[in-house]
Automatic annotation (TrEMBL), chains A, B, C, D:
Cytoplasm among keywords: yes
Binding site for ATP: G10, R72, A73, G103, D104, G105, T106
Leader sequence segment: none
Coiled coil: none
Organism lineage string: Bacteria, Bacillati, Actinomycetota, Actinomycetes, Micrococcales
Protein function: Catalyzes the phosphorylation of D-fructose 6-phosphate to fructose 1,6-bisphosphate by ATP, the first committing step of glycolysis.
Cell location: Cytoplasm
Cofactor dependence: Mg(2+)
UniProt-recorded name of the protein: ATP-dependent 6-phosphofructokinase
UniProt family annotation: Belongs to the phosphofructokinase type A (PFKA) family. Mixed-substrate PFK group III subfamily.
Positions marked as site (Important for substrate specificity): G105
Amino acid sequence: MKIGILTSGGDCPGLNAVIRGAVLTGDRHFEDEFVGYRDGWRGVIENDLVPIPRRRVRGIGRQGGTILGTSRANPFHDGQDGAAIVRRAMEAEEVDALIAIGGDGTLYTANRLFEAGIPVVGVPKTVDNDLDATDYTFGFHTAVEIATESLDRLRMTGDSHHRCMVAEVMGRSVGWIALHSGMAAGAHVICIPEFPLSLDEICAHVQSAWDRRRAPLVVVAEGFQPRDAPAGLMDYELDEFGRPRFGGIAQALAPLIEQRLGIESRATVLGHIQRGGEPTAYDRVLATRFGMAVMDLVHSRRYGRMVSLRGTDIVDVPLTEAIDNPKAVPASRWDEARALFG
Amino acid sequence: MKIGILTSGGDCPGLNAVIRGAVLTGDRHFEDEFVGYRDGWRGVIENDLVPIPRRRVRGIGRQGGTILGTSRANPFHDGQDGAAIVRRAMEAEEVDALIAIGGDGTLYTANRLFEAGIPVVGVPKTVDNDLDATDYTFGFHTAVEIATESLDRLRMTGDSHHRCMVAEVMGRSVGWIALHSGMAAGAHVICIPEFPLSLDEICAHVQSAWDRRRAPLVVVAEGFQPRDAPAGLMDYELDEFGRPRFGGIAQALAPLIEQRLGIESRATVLGHIQRGGEPTAYDRVLATRFGMAVMDLVHSRRYGRMVSLRGTDIVDVPLTEAIDNPKAVPASRWDEARALFG
Amino acid sequence: MKIGILTSGGDCPGLNAVIRGAVLTGDRHFEDEFVGYRDGWRGVIENDLVPIPRRRVRGIGRQGGTILGTSRANPFHDGQDGAAIVRRAMEAEEVDALIAIGGDGTLYTANRLFEAGIPVVGVPKTVDNDLDATDYTFGFHTAVEIATESLDRLRMTGDSHHRCMVAEVMGRSVGWIALHSGMAAGAHVICIPEFPLSLDEICAHVQSAWDRRRAPLVVVAEGFQPRDAPAGLMDYELDEFGRPRFGGIAQALAPLIEQRLGIESRATVLGHIQRGGEPTAYDRVLATRFGMAVMDLVHSRRYGRMVSLRGTDIVDVPLTEAIDNPKAVPASRWDEARALFG
Amino acid sequence: MKIGILTSGGDCPGLNAVIRGAVLTGDRHFEDEFVGYRDGWRGVIENDLVPIPRRRVRGIGRQGGTILGTSRANPFHDGQDGAAIVRRAMEAEEVDALIAIGGDGTLYTANRLFEAGIPVVGVPKTVDNDLDATDYTFGFHTAVEIATESLDRLRMTGDSHHRCMVAEVMGRSVGWIALHSGMAAGAHVICIPEFPLSLDEICAHVQSAWDRRRAPLVVVAEGFQPRDAPAGLMDYELDEFGRPRFGGIAQALAPLIEQRLGIESRATVLGHIQRGGEPTAYDRVLATRFGMAVMDLVHSRRYGRMVSLRGTDIVDVPLTEAIDNPKAVPASRWDEARALFG
């Protein structure tokens, strides 16, 4: 078969390992031919693609990012007939099936295409771990490792200066990275969108750590807002130079903590370094297994489905599962984490 | 309650995070008092113990090794009445319950004690991942990360010198570390005890990589033996200086590959660096959760049981499960891995 | 002798290795006794100190931060008679000599004390590498490693998204960290305070990289300002929530680049993670050597001097040298670096 | 000009950064054309070369190993007229000048060619740091970082098991890597070829650490032999399977220490992982500067010379300096290091 691969949405450590796993499997066991669409759906829409011979995937399993590039393009954009666009593109290059690697948006698009009769399968990608359709996916643990390593460093400098360090990690709508990296680094309070603490609660935990002669470490997910945030606190509008009014929630929390408690506080926004790293071995193995397993879906014509991790097994589920079930931090995990606060 | 903790058997990254998780939970939520037995069962037998106040566990979650020390001592050694010994020791210090952190041997001992009426619970520890009673336990992924990082380095020097690099990783009876690190590093052949390849098969994969202008990377578990090993190949006896006759299976394979194929080959035995590292964030989180969960077992008097990871949940199972079910690499994972060989 | 040690100013990876080197040397070869003043000069002023027995320095050589704590306190603050304060404090505890570990401010204070007859020696500390009195000091190379690792990650995600990544590193008055980490990571333009580029020049380099299908990587020292910065660009005043108006120069540059060139740009401010890490081996060795060498100064009564690295040798120079000669990036190094831009 | 580059001898982190620095400089400032000889002098002898366009060096600065490959071939091998061979090869491809990147052997060969009238310049490479002609060269600090990281891990597992850990690092004739990594990791004894300790001395330091309740850490350079080694101890002959009789000096020392002191001891041979890593930022910067500076030698026709680091400056010296002056660990550095033993 001739198979088209695309990576779409935010990049994520492990994308290249998926591509490698799929291409090696197809090359060796099915004599498949692979093409890669550049920058996700944009490449499909504009018929911008490159062949992916086996030699091209040599050694990419450990590389971060994606060799195919990515974008947030979408064939259904502006009410266009995305299915027709994609079908035309596939026919033009005689592509028999598509492998779409991406998050809920990408998989939603893939499912619409599938419902329109296009042979497409999916590989779930979310650095935030917000897909309930799989226990974990590649990239999340790498991001947690990078965040934890940074938190360890912040704690050391915080201890030396007797400062409260406020660190902002990724997570617009879910707090998984904050929860895991915060637990790993022994944070004194973790702020996640699912269970918004109040400023009073945050300060109480900070004070309690301080009273035990600890330099308080506060980990906050970028999407967090304090339950009792003063009006305008989260005001992000740009100034005349196009600069954000401030760098993020961490930069809002640090001065508030300092004002309330009189404890010198510093903010750090980890930002893009969390998603750019080489994948950890855990993520390389998972991504490789996903890439290999998705080829079974293709060759058994189980279109409209995606690979998924359950326990230690790779299984497959309908693409719709990726869309219907966002995965927020459950109360049980939150209670577990908060039991260590302060 | 007054609770005794011990770490027994080979050390493993994450032991300290378990101790920290247990002590913080007991201290905050149950007003428990903790003592640590030095060097596993030896400390119990010799009544050698230290208090573990909350401040003692500060910041140990990221430390490798174990603050309590470990050994391979066993109260039932030489047919002694281990239960009586342990009971006496516990009574002498008014210890109400024991938390035994260790591998199958330790958990077997714990279960014998439980059957003799001693209030003991367990936390599974195996850097080799050979316990079927849990999906994973702490330490394994750290060892895989360290091994993979080393394999990445060996591959770079192998490529520059056009050499076949043979790397030996941990795994006396199971090949999990070899399987995961080998897949992560893109090894051309992985040798594990569960599915012993022959020298011919190994050489065939090495040659095939070589023919594609790759520097072959061979990952071998320490317990592997080629199916058709010449007599005496695995001969380990010590010489007059107490030196092992050779450093391990990798040092046996490398020259054989070089002799058969004429490809310059080098052996590296990763050894103890795999178990000594700081735990990864993954292992810190898992170990912390184990430490917290085992306190629920203690306080709900669910003795004779141990904590376990199933999917993303911490559950508990009888200690006997740890003993009855060693976890070897299954055929499905082996077929998956070998599909990428050569 | 009874020797007092203090660490003052911003923390820096390697401070603990200096303390360890000094204490081990004094303990073994001179039977010295050590006390540590808490939080730099504050501990001296308030007579807040702790004994540092040999066992206290065990294993601290690899720890970041400082076990003694640090602050920006200064005995001459508010025109006080700092010499009298320090002399009284030393007499009260029968401290024979002081080892002051710090940057130009600390060493300036140490020199004033020396001129007033106080037996004090110095160890230069500057994560920014802005002291001409020594080739390098500990902490700088660690900060460069951490920054470079982050830049490598930013480059990977930049490549995947075809974005211009703007990364801000430490360096208020000098650009050494930006220069070294930028060269190491292969940045397309490096912005340092010593040779302020204009926005036009920055954009020209970004465009030139873009035209060669590279994701532009811009490294900027926190103290940099474009030669032709529009009025108000660097406006840092706080808003009503005590938030800085923006997070730093990187957050000012990114939108300007995006506006001018139409290339999507993202800013990352590395911040405190650069100074909090475990020291690299290079810095551990240098710091240990400094700690050992400063004991020779003490026991040979060469007060008023500090240790220094020249080539591969540890030498000593007057404290005044640390004050009189800030070390900016020279034109030769700037020309060398810029030759790789664009 | 048309310039040929070759990398010869053992690989070393930073080789690719040298190539990148040279090619970018030549491409931008001199419109040079570059060719790379494959596998060092072998490529010259067999006229096996590849063009190195600018795009080929993209992103290689952080890659370990060498994109050109390396070997120990030598044009003067077997008394051949190496100069004639090289001249012919250069003329055949109209190569105007050679850049030889390698250790003392390579630079010796380069000098013989220069004396025969061939336009060649050199870049010193030695992971062992055994060239007196330069303060340091790239690769050494990377190897020290990797070794130190491993030693940190060995110390953690040693502490948990109360074992003496014996670690063998690179260094056949000089002990620089052992000296630096041992000091960085806080080893209790360091064994280097320049100042051979006796088994008694080694055991005395091990015992002294043990008596202070430390797990002794012994770092030994591969070329070390105890002053009083029993006859046959260092016997390396191969057995009938082509296996070395033992894995190295560490595997000889560990059992001897265990026999003499009754302290359980374990050996680890770090081996090739020390040379295969990605270069540290320090080595990337130094290698890049060397690559840029060597182009000045070429274009100013200062043939027969090589680049060198003195303090923080890149200078140039005659190739002969690399040959005449091996750099052993001097007594001053040895005394400094041993002052921390035991």
